[in-house]
Amino acid sequence: MKHLSDVDSQRLFYKRIFSHEDGCPHELVQVSRDILKKCGGVPLAIITIASLLSSPMRSKTNDKWDALLNSIGHGLAEGDSMEEMQKVLSLSYYDLPSHLKTCLLYLSIFPEDYEIPRDQLIWIWIAEGFVKCEKHETSLFDFGDSYFNELINRSMIQPIDINVEGKARACRVDDMVLDLILHVSTAKNFVTIFDGIKRKTSSQIKVRRLALQNSVVEPTMPQVTMSMSQVRSVIVFMPAINLMPPLSSFHVLRVLDIEGCELHNLRYVGNLYHLRYLRLRSKNYPLKSGELPVEIGNLQFLQTIDIIGLAVEELPWAFVQLRQLMCLRVGENTRLPGEMGNLASLEVLSTVFLDESPNFVKQLQSLTRLRELSMLAFEMDMALMETLVESLCKLQKIETLDVQALPPLLNLIGNSWVPPPYLRRFFAHGPFLAMPTWIKRDPSLLSNLSVLTIQFMELSQEDLQILGRLPALLSLELDLTDQDKLLIGADGFHCLKVFKIWIFSCDLMFQLGAMPRVENIRFSFSVQQAKDGGNADFDFGLGNLLSLEHIDVVVRCYEVTNGEVEEAEAALRHVAQVHPNHPTLKMGRVGAT
């Protein structure tokens, strides 16, 4: 474990608690030094204790800090004692409110170093009943998301792939934190784990939550089927699929998550009357077609179904009886029943292929709780497209809309759709013929739109300025088909952090003061067109992007020599070297011989 110097330890400690290095009050300086001495320069210990002290529930007084200092014990000053480190970590665990303790303990069900997807984890928490919300107008998922973020803020879990909105796609549990929660979980009989080597808990107790992580040499493991009647959660990871007990073993199951399942093994799933969460991943590639049993309609408590990757041709008609369903993720080619409007609790729907489910288009307007919608539509007549847009206009809680379609539908959405005020992310895969009216009319009204992916045949300078006036825009991805040139000035994009532009023409220029906060940029250019257009030095004005940290460039090498390509790449490397921030540079080639 790498140790920090005293100076770096203090910098990390103060910045975590006071948001800046010099923010420590005079009366807390000495006790903070004593605390840091016990942390022994171990980063995890420093972050853990700092997270404790930065909690809004713990006032920044000398008495409170002295009490914490005394509770640490000998600390790590005399070496890296695993026992002492566990004492430090246990302070943070026992400082958690009860609902966060339970949510954290559930993470012991995942293998070491496993990337735990945020959405998957939150929906499981909801299914287990860990997420409580007394405000009926607030989504349970939003509350679960706040739990996830609080565990990150307290340094109990590590975020992975933080997006431009500050949300982590997934999390990981540090090995020492995992050891702690495994110990607590075992003591409480919270989770039973079969890892293929040994059982992490005794077989003499009733199993409440079961994790099958790795397979074993023996073809069967009778221990796994012991006392299955009380199991609430089963998570099966791909290597252990052969250990899966028959579904008939479970009587009160709430969570069923299987990697490597076969559709024909799901015949009994309709009898799991208490099931709230169902996530299935197939082990077959290419996938085999199949169907879910019609008895799935019996699962009246079901809240989440995630079967992306299973080649389910059509959801059974009984599906429309699942009135508690909040999240539905299916494959692109899965047909939906015509009466989906009955699913009034639905918040997430991905991905619906409207060409295969035309009867669903009108029903869509009844799903008034939808927050996320992903859809494909390529062969629809005008009447059906108009019905679709009318339905979209009635979905007033939409935060994320992802559309793959041809220009007729996209332009109808552009001209006739009125987005709700909650819209945060809009993804359009397919070209608009003109700037959408709902953007052009008054960009300031889209006060929550932070992520925009959009494609045009050509974008005028005026339209670019309209996009620049979107007040909350953090990420913009443009795909321009027939663009001649584009000049990006200082009049807009004041919040933008990520800018991606796919443009065949090379006449792209950033002026001084353009995109003052942009950190990541990705673009492509043609070496031949750059030279023909008079930009032989390959100057795109990247030096004018003062906050730039990362550059990702695709170099089009058609009809030029290898020497000309290397000349262009050398020019870009020079730009990165002389930029005050020394941004990282990643280059790739297309069309190279």
Q: Structural class, please?
A: alpha/beta
Helix content: 25-40%
Unreliably modeled segments: 217-225
Largest sheet: 17 strands, parallel
Tell the overall outline.
globular
Q: Write down the oligomeric state.
A: single chain
Query: How big is the Rg?
Result: 27 Å
Find the count of extended strands (DSSP E, 2+ residues): 24
How much strand content do the residues show?
A: 15-25%
Instruction: Provide a count of the helices.
Output: 16
The average pLDDT value, as a whole number, equals 86
Distance between the termini: 47 Å
Keywords:
593 residues, alpha/beta, three-stranded antiparallel beta sheet, 28% helix, globular
Question: Would you write up a description of this structure?
Answer:
With 593 residues, the chain is of the alpha/beta class. Helix content is 28%, strand content 20%. Helix 1 packs across helix 2 and helix 5 packs across helix 9. The two termini are 47 Å apart.
